[in-house]
Amino acid sequence: MLTSTITNEHFHTRVLGLLNAYTQNSADASQPLPLIPALDHPDTPLGPNDTVGQLVTFTSSWIDLSSPDPLIAHLSRHVFHLEIAYAAFCGASTVVVPGPRLAHGQHGVSQFARSIKEALATASYVSFHVQLPMDASRPGVETDDLGDLARFARPEFEPKNEVKAVTPWSAWEAWDTIRSICKYHNRLSVALDLPRRMPPLALQSRWFSEPVRLLHLPAATFLVNARQSFVLSKAHQAFIFRCMRLQRAPWLLLSDIGQLPGVDDPDMVMSYSTGHLSPRTAEDAPIPESSADIAPTPAEAAQLAQKLRKKISSSNDPTPHLSYLRYMQRNQPPKSQIERFGGGFQDYLQSPLQPLTDNLESITYEVFEKDPIKYAWYERAIAQALRDWHGKRRSTSSVSGAVVIAVVGSGRGPLVTRALNASASTGVPVQVYAIEKNPNAYVLLQRHNVETWKGRVTVVKTDMRAWKGPTQPDGTVGKVDILISELLGSFADNELSPECLDGVQHVLNPNHGISIPSSYTAHFTPIATPKLWADLYNRSTSIDPTAFDIPWVVMLTQLDYLSTDAKETPASQQLTNGTKMTNFNLEAPLAPNVQTAWEFSHPLPASVLAQSSLRKGGSAVGGGGGFVGGDGANEHNYRHCKIVFPIQEPGVCHGLGGYFETVLYSGSEGPVELSTNPATMEAKSKDMISWFPILFPLKVCLVISKT
Ligand SMILES: C[S@@+](CC[C@H](N)C(=O)[O-])C[C@H]1O[C@@H](n2cnc3c(N)ncnc32)[C@H](O)[C@@H]1O
Which CATH class, in words, describes the domain spanning 362-523+594-644+649-704? Predict the structure, then answer.
């Protein structure tokens, strides 16, 4: 990728001349604001050629679209408009626009946003990247140009009210205003300037969730290690690695690193950097201690980089910064199980499965069955339940004394196999039933029974709620000792597990009957997911007006947790505990505050089911129907909750991230649990891949402030 400005110094000089001429005559109050004549051939290095679509083009940094002075704002807007129109005419596809001057405050940001909105309309094929500092209190790129139009702003237009001080968050706040005014336009994103010292993790996480298409690393971002090599701090390494794992990874742009040797000589053969560096060359630099080192001004940083460049130029690497980035590329941490499995699914919206209404395809079952954890944990739970049953010398529901197991909703049969394995490993005999309503899966179950299970299983094709129970040798209907099911959705009950299990509970041994799972809980946390919100907004205004009305299953990746716990995480500890970059944990560095919404447990007390059936019966004593329609038989499964989430930083909530936990079985050996909750998944069922989280999007995103 090459970069180019859209106009050049010739044009700049022309505009300054015009400004000068105008201000000379400023005594004439009737004079209209000046017009900038159309671009001349010498004003621009660009032209419509084959390569222009590959260029990263830049609008002028010497304009001030957010100026409070109407003259400067007008000229800036005019320059900007000419540049955008010409870049679009030439076929440029990428334009970087230096962000608003934050010191002008909110009004200036809105003014800037209006220009961007106009540009999006003028140039319909161009993507715009607004260039902003990651930490607004340490702007990495500052124009100290004598020709900067901002210098000519007239003092009488200085805002009277004290403008809010620029804080580290000001750039993010400005971005939030710009993209909101531009309605989360899909051609609008961020070019982020990385500072020498990374800001607090909360601000890093916020930027990670935003559509950053370009990470800009000025030379001053680099530290110098004992070997006098340019390297990045651990915080930079971790942030860059996380960004590079995104579905749409940003480009990395190096600046101020000096002329590339031979760049002007088309005949020179340049050896390009491979990133093969010795461990000492790429060794981390000590974290700067003196405040000057921590936060050099941009001018100091540039000087420092220049000094070091001279010193280091004696080494034979002509592009040491690039070499280090390539070194990082070579030394990325390996992908986790979930990243490997979910490759193409990051932040991809899927409508939740409805396995009760729909009959799943074989391929869907096949995907579940790849889970390395879920089935193993079910087998552990079943084995523990069998050992406990046997150990407590409980009577069974079979004539033979075998423990009667029914896998209800057995799909293609993986849990049936696990139940048979558990019986074999514990030595507790079982009698197994496989109940499935999907007629297509039923065929496979029968085939499995012949070919794999050697006829040890009774396969029944029915809705579990209509199943009367195991038929005994004498023709009577018996009971089941252990009901095994996996009817859980991403938010626990959203695939109707409670309703189905209530409906089959009548077959369960009323004294000792066990349900695996024995309980499940739904959990959620407020999140910022601008990308997903923009996707849903676009759908809702085009193909699917109900896009915001339903929850979505999605491998949430580019998100920011808005409510976090103060506790350390492996991803935050690794920044100071000497962890090597190849071993980095690329999860969110701040632990989310995930709260429990509600719980379901099985089997239900008999009195609850008796009341449900009374309501269903429709008699006068049955209470006259449900509170929100229906016969009221499912009223006991109604849930609601109110939860307060402390908020640490200002933000925008785009929705709730939903998860679940389940206790499969809890007996004498302790609980066997599954979890997709980011706060507990690592401990309970690390590497489980069967469920992605669920997103409850907000139609109107919620601006939230620090509590
Ligand atoms: C999520 S799949 C799990 C399949 C299998 N147990 C596994 O773990 O791979 C749920 C299965 O339950 C079945 N199912 C859902 N509701 C049912 C019902 N009321 N009666 C019988 N089967 C049901 C579906 O057809 C589907 O095969």
Answer: alpha beta
